[in-house]
């Protein structure tokens, strides 16, 4: 990504939303960036890490989002502009630190970008985390398009530094992962000299200690900053109005919903009736601007991704200024004009707006829509989410499923966040029965493991990945060890943060910038805290099953850890280098007969195995097969045969 | 569906004996400790599936495994066919010392292998964890290392499948009554399957069985007792106790404490003496002193093959025999009938009113006769031991 650090003002470049964010930070003179990988935020740090040495940055994948915020804050305290980036969950993980950072304040500009996932495309939640801004009394910007995103980030840095307050910036999948043309600005080459001043009076923002106490005084200072910000936002260039002077209906939108609302008015040719107030600063709200636009319209339609955050704020605002603004009718999520769940898009907004305006809108001609639905049903193969061919998780969960079934005490798996989350589906034999936040599988397992005194005899098995281990898994594990919980923890060590694109984590010997780093040994850590530890290769099914069954344990057995080590099938180590050539011997394949009943394609379900309906035999798709050789171990008849391949070093 | 029938009507209904007939046929079920478990679910029907076809606790047609009821050929409702009844024991006292009782079973088994009655024998092997796993033995010398009874379930019939898979054509099996029933059922359905799974069965040596214990609670009890690793266990005749010999001591405990550990499925068992074996062997629970009798076995010779086989063992001098004391066979009958009657009562209670009776196939035209024969004669003496 050469253009990211091209100092060529005026040039137009095509950037991914997350790259535009990164460019904005670079144009603002960024020095330090820290993040924890998570879709849709990962590319922000990834792109910065790529240019770290050229742009004289320090970038890191932190152990978790809270630490990322702390690393960024330290830079700011020492006078270096910094950025912390994360997915929505991360803001929740780090909120404790942020609560105190709001009070201590910052020095050099510090921006915290959280990229949310409306519609939960790659999350197990649909968090709208904007309320943190109100809760913590921190300014919030919402990015609406790739083009302006870069500018907003630059402004965020300026405002953060001017008000000595961290600024929250919200992105969403449709912005972070969309591309747009961005006009490059100048790239400063700041001379940096990091010093942390702490010798001054405690309330001195530039020379005092960075501490949240004395709390009442610090809160007073924070509220003064907010008042100042309110005034500043009146002039904020990226709060924009489109439409007639006195519309009957005013749409107020933020985030990518700005584009949807604009397009909806456009498609309905309703610019005579409707205006659009596009807000970037959704907390604190620019009151003068609102008053100016809210006077005329009788109806206010709030279009936003997530919960009714802006809607609630506007309602409160109008109620407060009732005398001046008069009676309004509000449309939005609260009374159901827009759906309360899932992601918005132009059609959803246009249909809702058409209804409100008494117009008609048909996103797709009905005849076409039904034909398309029919064609999809007929011709698209039914596929559900699955582990990749050669994925170590399929092998691991195969053994886990077997061991739990054989043990027969109603055992189950407390799941965690990673590719392996799919084990709640048939892809992973549906063994995962609880799924919450990062590290929660082990916390829950620790709790289940203490219910023995109430007659609980179900075996509890927690799983987590190597990255999750460091993120928040370790405290939960220590909790289980210390409290002698009956927990069996399986660490699915695929040697990288695979789900989000192989970012390194503390277990690996290289860092975000590809330089050498200290590798923290998971096995050693587990041993040091006093757990019983075993290590196995999940591709060795018999050995893994034997270990698991032996480790199921009895009441009062304490914490046992099994580390299943095998790199991800898509990892650079394994990609394109199968260990075996695999084929089905047709003469031996039992197929649908008793004794097999298509075990490989019906139960084991590696996507590289398929059922040849005509021949009534299983086959291996050579193009998809990753050559792990595991299917040869599960075939009951020995029909799947593997031949070892030798690769030059 | 094949497996679903087992799951709903056998496993989940507490009827599974753990005989192992459904195990090792496919990857869908497995055996762990002393239970069969569904590991993955299979969608084949009863017509296609072997597991339900082989299972002695699903649609068992008594007339098909026994043949239609008759009074000819020494068939008794309590003990099945009887061609001969003897007390026997191994002539070699060293062998007796290692065996559960008289060592008759081990001797017969070793002879079966040595004389070519079988190419391989399936016996109950013990694991470190106390759980049992079938072992295949092909040398007569090895037989003695499997002597002794462990009163838990062994999935022995899965060892028969394994031996077939390994290519053996003449397989001998040491089987408890439920295992012998399973083997008989496999024989009776053999024609349905292309590979005739019953054809490889050459001889079945039966062990008498009153019940088996559940492994998990027993293991917990064993830990409390502090006798160390289990070496042997037995029920001495007439004492109402259980003897447990561990490597750090012997404990003799009232059986009452173990009664709740009896496997649920055993309450529904109709057979004490392995009626479907060629020869059945049990302890000699006669009116003579146990210390003497514990080195003898009661033997029921059932089939022609069994008779020839037994005579050969006596001729070769490896077995010594004596006549059973008067009244011994009657006492055995009484005990066996009591078990059957109890089982039928338990099945009636489980299935409730209506024609259905547990795992027995009510389409079996001879079922009423079987039931009548068992239920009309004799009182309700309890306890097989
Ligand atoms: C579970 C069980 C319950 C029994 N209940 C009674 C009873 O109520 N009344 C009675 O008279 N006799 C009973 N017996 C039989 C008795 O314990 C002896 O097995 C029998 O008397 C033969 O003695 P032996 O010295 O000839 O055996 P051995 O020469 O010692 O040979 C014993 C054989 O039994 C096999 N065996 C051991 N444990 C098992 C098992 N759990 N399942 C299948 N095979 C096994 C071994 O592989 C070995 O081949 C029972 C046996 C078992 C296994
Ligand atoms: S598991 Fe083996 S026998 Fe069964 S369908 Fe697949 S290749 Fe054929
Ligand atoms: S070897 Fe088998 S299990 Fe592995 S990727 Fe190929 S088909 Fe799938
Ligand atoms: S029907 Fe056949 S394949 Fe299916 S569970 Fe039963 S034995 Fe296995
Ligand atoms: S009784 Fe035997 S065949 Fe039937 S389910 Fe149990 S172990 Fe399987």
Summarize the structure in words:
The complex is a heterodimer of chains A (649) and B (385). By secondary structure, chain A is of the alpha/beta class. Chain A has four domains: 2-233, Thiamin diphosphate (ThDP)-binding fold, Pyr/PP domains (Rossmann fold), CATH 3.40.50; 241-357, 3-Layer(aba) Sandwich (Rossmann fold), CATH 3.40.50; 392-565, 3-Layer(aba) Sandwich (Rossmann fold); 580-644, Alpha-Beta Plaits, CATH 3.30.70.20. In chain A, the strands form six sheets. Chain A has a seven-stranded mixed β-sheet with strand order 3-2-4-5-7-6-12. In chain A, strands 16-15-17-18-20-19 form a six-stranded parallel β-sheet, sandwiched between helices. Chain A is globular and about 80 Å long. Chain B folds into three domains: 3-63 and 338-375, no CATH class; 73-213 and 264-334, Aspartate Aminotransferase, domain 2; 215-261. Chain B has an eight-stranded mixed β-sheet with strand order 7-6-8-9-13-14-5-15, sandwiched between helices. The radius of gyration of chain B is 20 Å and the shape is globular. Classes of the chains: A alpha/beta (649), B alpha+beta (385). Chain A binds chain B through residues 401-402, 405-408, 429, 549, 592-597, 599, 602-603, 634, 636, and chain B through 2, 25-28, 30-33, 35, 37-40, 42-44, 48-51. Bound molecules: flavin-adenine dinucleotide and iron/sulfur cluster (4 copies). One iron/sulfur cluster binds next to helix 1 of chain B.
Class derived from helix and strand content of chain B: alpha+beta
- CATH class of the largest domain in chain A equals Alpha Beta
Overall spatial form of chain B: globular
Beta strand % of chain A = 15-25%
N-to-C CA distance of chain A: 30 Å
Biggest beta-sheet profile of chain A: 7 strands, mixed
Helix coverage percent of residues of chain B? 25-40%
Which radius of gyration of chain A do the C-alpha atoms yield? 28 Å
Q: Would you identify the regions of chain B where 5 or more consecutive residues have pLDDT less than 50?
A: 379-385
Proportion in β-strands of chain B:
15-25%
Distance between the termini of chain B: 38 Å
At CATH level 2, the architecture of the largest domain in chain A is 3-Layer(aba) Sandwich
């Amino acid at each position: 990504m050469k253009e990211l650090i091209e100092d060529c003002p005026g040039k137009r470049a095509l950037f991914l939303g997350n790259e535009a964010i990164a460019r904005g930070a670079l144009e603002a003179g960024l020095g330090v960036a820290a993040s924890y990988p998570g879709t849709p935020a990962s590319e922000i740090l990834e792109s910065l890490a790529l240019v770290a040495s050229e742009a004289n940055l320090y970038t890191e994948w932190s152990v978790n989002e809270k630490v990322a915020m702390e690393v960024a804050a330290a830079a700011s305290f020492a006078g270096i502009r910094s950025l912390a980036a994360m997915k929505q969950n991360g803001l929740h993980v780090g909120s404790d630190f942020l609560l105190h950072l709001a009070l201590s304040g910052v020095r050099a500009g510090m921006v915290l970008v959280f990229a949310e996932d409306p519609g939960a495309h790659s999350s197990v939640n649909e968090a709208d985390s904007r309320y943190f801004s109100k809760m913590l009394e921190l300014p919030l910007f919402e990015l609406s398009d790739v083009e302006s995103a870069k500018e907003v980030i630059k402004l965020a840095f300026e405002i953060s530094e001017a008000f000595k307050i961290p600024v929250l910036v919200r992105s969403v999948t449709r912005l972070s992962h969309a591309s747009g043309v961005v006009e490059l600005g100048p790239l400063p080459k700041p001379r940096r000299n990091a010093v942390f001043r702490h010798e001054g009076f405690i309330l001195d923002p530039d020379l005092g200690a960075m501490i949240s106490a004395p709390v009442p005084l610090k809160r007073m200072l924070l509220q003064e900053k907010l008042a100042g910000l309110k005034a500043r936002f009146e002039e904020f260039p990226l709060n924009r109005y489109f439409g007639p002077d006195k519309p009957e209906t005013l749409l107020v939108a933020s985030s990518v919903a700005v584009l949807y609302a604009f397009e909806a008015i456009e498609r309905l040719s309703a610019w005579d009736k409707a205006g659009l107030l596009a807000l970037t600063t959704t907390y604190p709200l620019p009151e003068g601007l609102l008053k100016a636009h809210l006077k005329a319209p009788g109806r206010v339609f709030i279009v936003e991704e997530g919960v009714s955050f802006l809607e609630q704020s506007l309602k409160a605002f109008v109620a407060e200024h009732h005398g001046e603004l008069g009676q309004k009718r509000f449309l939005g999520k609260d009374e159901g004009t827009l759906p309360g769940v899932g992601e918005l898009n132009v059609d959803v907004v246009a249909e809702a707006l058409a209804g409100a305006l008494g117009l008609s809108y048909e996103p797709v001609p009905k005849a076409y829509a039904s034909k398309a639905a029919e064609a999809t049903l007929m011709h698209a193969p039914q596929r559900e989410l699955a582990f990749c061919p050669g994925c170590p998780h399929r092998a691991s969960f195969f053994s886990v499923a077997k061991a739990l079934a054989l043990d027969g005490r109603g055992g189950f798996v407390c799941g965690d966040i990673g590719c392996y989350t799919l084990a709640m589906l048939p892809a992973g034999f549906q063994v995962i029965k609880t799924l919450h936040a990062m590290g929660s599988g082990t916390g829950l397992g620790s709790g289940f493991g203490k219910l023995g005194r109430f007659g609980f005899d179900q075996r509890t098995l927690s799983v987590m990945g190597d990255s999750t281990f460091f993120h928040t898994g370790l405290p939960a594990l220590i909790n289980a060890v210390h409290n002698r919980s009956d927990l069996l923890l399986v660490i699915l060590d695929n040697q990288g943060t695979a789900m989000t694109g192989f970012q390194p984590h503390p277990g690996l010997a290289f860092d975000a910038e590809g330089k050498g780093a200290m590798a923290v040994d998971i096995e050693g850590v587990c041993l040091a805290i006093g757990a019983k530890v075993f290590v196995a290769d999940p591709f060795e099914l018999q050995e893994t099953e034997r270990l698991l069954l032996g480790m199921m344990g009895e009441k009062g057995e304490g914490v046992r850890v099994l580390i299943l080590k095998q790199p991800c099938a898509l990892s650079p180590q394994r990609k394109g280098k199968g260990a075996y050539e695999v084929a089905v011997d047709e003469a031996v394949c039992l197929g649908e007969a008793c004794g097999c009943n298509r075990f490989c394609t019906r139960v084991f379900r590696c996507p590289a195995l398929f059922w040849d309906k005509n021949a009534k035999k299983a086959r291996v798709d050579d193009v998809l097969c990753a050559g792990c050789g595991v299917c040869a171990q599960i075939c009951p008849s020995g029909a799947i045969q593997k031949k070892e391949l030798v690769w030059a070093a | 569906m094949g497996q679903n029938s087992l799951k709903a009507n056998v496993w989940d209904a507490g009827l599974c004996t753990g005989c192992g007939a459904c195990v090792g046929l496919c990857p869908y079920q497995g055996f762990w400790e002393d239970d069969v478990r569904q590991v993955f679910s299979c969608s084949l029907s009863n017509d296609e599936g072997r597991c339900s076809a082989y299972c002695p606790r699903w649609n068992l047609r008594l007339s098909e495994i026994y043949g239609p009821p008759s009074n000819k050929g020494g068939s008794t409702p309590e003990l099945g066919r009887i061609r001969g009844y003897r007390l026997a024991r191994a002539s070699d006292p060293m062998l007796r010392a290692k065996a559960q009782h008289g060592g008759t079973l081990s001797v017969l088994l070793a002879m079966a292998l040595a004389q070519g009655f079988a190419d391989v024998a399936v016996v109950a092997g013990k694991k470190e964890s106390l759980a049992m796993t079938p072992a295949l033995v092909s040398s007569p010398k090895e037989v003695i290392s499997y002597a002794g009874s462990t009163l838990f379930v062994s999935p022995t019939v899965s060892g028969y499948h394994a031996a077939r898979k390994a290519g053996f054509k003449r397989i001998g099996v040491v089987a408890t009554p439920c295992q012998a029933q399973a083997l008989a059922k496999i024989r009776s359905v053999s024609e349905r399957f292309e590979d005739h799974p019953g054809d490889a069965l050459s001889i079945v040596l039966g062990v008498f069985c009153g019940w088996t214990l559940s492994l998990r609670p027993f293991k917990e009890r064993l830990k409390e007792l502090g006798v160390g690793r289990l070496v042997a266990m037995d029920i001495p005749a007439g004492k109402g106790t259980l003897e447990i010999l561990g490597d750090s001591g012997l404990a003799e405990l009232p059986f009452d404490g173990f009664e709740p550990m009896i496997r649920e499925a055993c309450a529904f068992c109709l057979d004490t003496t392995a009626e479907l074996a060629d020869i059945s062997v049990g302890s000699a629970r006669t009116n003579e002193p146990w210390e003497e009798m514990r080195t003898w076995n009661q033997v029921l010779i059932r089939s022609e093959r069994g008779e020839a086989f037994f005579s050969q063992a006596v001729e070769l001098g490896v077995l010594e025999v004596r006549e059973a004391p008067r009244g011994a066979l009657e006492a055995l009958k009484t005990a066996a009938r009591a078990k059957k009657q109890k089982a039928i009562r338990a099945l009636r209670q489980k299935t409730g009113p209506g024609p259905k009776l547990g795992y027995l196939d009510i389409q079996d035209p001879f079922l009423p006769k079987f039931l009548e024969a068992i239920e009309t004669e004799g009182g309700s003496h309890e306890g097989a031991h």
